[in-house]
Amino acid sequence: MSTSQSSTLKIGIVGFGSFGQFLAKTMIKQGHNLTATSRTDYSNSCLQLGIQFFRDVRMFIEANNDVILICTSILSFSEVLRSMPLACLKRQTTLFVDVLSVKEHPRDLLLQVLPEESDILCTHPMFGPDSGKNGWKDLTFMYDKVRIRDEATCSSFLHIFAEEGCKMLQMSCEEHDKIAAKSQFITHTIGRTLAEMNIESTTIDTKGFQTLTQLKETTMRDSFDLYSGLFIHNRFATQELENLQHALHKVKEMLVQRMSEELGPEED
Q: Residues in domain Prephenate/arogenate dehydrogenase (predicted)?
């Protein structure tokens, strides 16, 4: 690690499911010191990784972390954040970081709930355990410095991803959600629609259809909680869903019109 650009951080992870563990492995590889807490007991997994696991959230908060990285689901984020005994923070300028797939929702909650002294960095790694299993090079890492006083700690945290070769993209939470509603949410919606249609590979698949079946399979590996979170907590998603419905209706109208022109009116 280049000490001129980064320093060793003490990072506490809240929510040590598959995504939290995925991030933790790279952070440990880089030499950072990690602690974790979660509703599920991950003490054995943490033991194998060399991470101190706290069943007691109060003890976790009192562990004097430089960074508290919240890796919960979108739907449980509010409950988890509000249940944290933040008055027990030892370090006044603790940097709080979220990694949710929506951004205005965690930003607003963090600003509302955290002590004024706490720093806030909202991020969205545009990859996960599947797409990032062979490394993070050229994968996009979006971030918004919502409230940063301790630039050194923030820079050291961002350097974790820059060092792995991520494309570092600074963007406002609002702009992220506008774009994500048109891209990520629509992708998940199409994938789940195809799953509802029970599409399966055939003996005469075109390349295009193979892409669709792959989209369905990839999408369905994510939970419905994630998908519904992308809808409920992104204020731009409702309009995009309506746009999709309107577009499908428009395409159907065009087909019916062409069929009428080609076949003529039906005789009684």
A: 9-268
Q: Report the CATH fold assignment for 10-171.
A: Rossmann fold (3.40.50)
CA distance 126 to 177: 13
pLDDT of residue 179: 98
Question: Within its chain, how far is the Cα of 12 from the centroid?
Answer: 18
- Which pLDDT belongs to residue 91? 83
Q: What gap in Å lies between CA 185 and CA 187, rounded to an integer?
A: 5
Would you state the pLDDT for residue 267? 58
Buried b (16+ CB within 10 A) or exposed e, 109-141: bbeeebeeebbbbbbbbbbbeeebeeebeebeb
Mean pLDDT by 10 residues, the chain (268 residues): 67 97 98 97 96 97 97 98 95 94 98 97 96 96 98 98 98 98 98 98 98 97 96 98 98 97 76
Q: Distance between CA atoms of 137 and 13, rounded to whole angstroms?
A: 23
Domain with CATH 3.40.50.720 in the chain: 10-171
Residues 66, 12 contacting (CB under 8 angstroms): no
Q: What is the CA radius of gyration of the chain?
A: 22
